[in-house]
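Sample entry (393 residues):
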Amino acid sequence: MGRDGVRLRGGAQGAAGRFDSMSGEAGEIPGFDPASDRAPPARSRWGRRSPERCDEDPDRDRGRATYAALDLGTNNCRLLVARPSGDGFRVVDAFSRIVRLGEGVSLSGRLSETAIERALGALTICRNKMKSRGVTRARLIATEACRAATNGEDFRARVAEQLHLELEVIDRETEANLAATGCTPLIDPEADGVVLFDIGGGSSELVRLDQSCRPGRGPPLPRIRGWVSLPTGVVTLAERHGGISVTRDSYERMVVEVSGLIEPFVRAHGDGSLSGIHMLGTSGTVTTIAGVHLNLKRYDRNRVDGCWMNAPEINAVVDRLLAMSYEDRVASPCIGAERADLVLAGCAILEAIRRAFPCPRLRVADRGLREGMLVQMMREDGAWDNEGQPAVS
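Predicted structure, serialized as tokens:
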């Protein structure tokens, strides 16, 4: 489903992965150790044509397949570098930075020069990390900001010219598919299915998933019943309604606006009992809510990713955030200045989803598109000797 990336032939499969997306440090997948080896710079042009192999340092294992997944969203630029290991993969490097590429696009229709410069700075770091890690295959995607902006193609051309990185602007169906692929390992095996949501900066995806199935090896495969992409996210909603000073009334207006966008999907997929269904959320909104709920003094992905919250606990956090001033949100260790004007817009999107699908439990995922890309590439290359495909040497 969706357009091809670097040597990518298509198909949506399962995913796993662990890293601290706030700090941008490499982390650990359950059961595997983080890597400490490094490689010298590799040849350039990343994106559609990654080099098959790079000049290698004697200190790193020769012939190891190393994959990179980059997600340039409306709000964030994120990179994950990993190698297949066991039935999953081992993260060897990671990076995350809020760049707000889509800032002002909902009003002007264009990417601003300031936002472009921020994105180019982050992409430069990502390029250098991919080179230093000896990446052999990569997929680099851009989402809603580049889809919506009239100068999105000009931006892509500039990235290719200046950084030799070729961004793939994916469609919304592919975005929903990748989110499902990245989060499938967190579906409760005892559940009948899940309502997955990914609250982004410029769009938000909802996916109705049945219980996943497991291949012979590798992460589980998602079974998508239906999906929808909403043309709104935390950046666009906050720009329309305000994000610095948010009252109960303005918050409710945001909820009502998003509820109207969800209604057609609810009619198609909201019928029947939700007693055996849980929600699964991936985004800065839900990880922030989880961090506040856990009273973390510093964001800790190992405590957030996979944690469960019930409806009263979510309500308590949202009430707490609504009672905070903008300055209080800035001072919160799990929010900070970069998210303080966006977090309540995200809460409003979540509230609209919760009203539409009143599931009793929510599981929080600090994973998503990048993990989905990594697993799709690895599975296609036969990294887990699955589906008769040859293993990568």
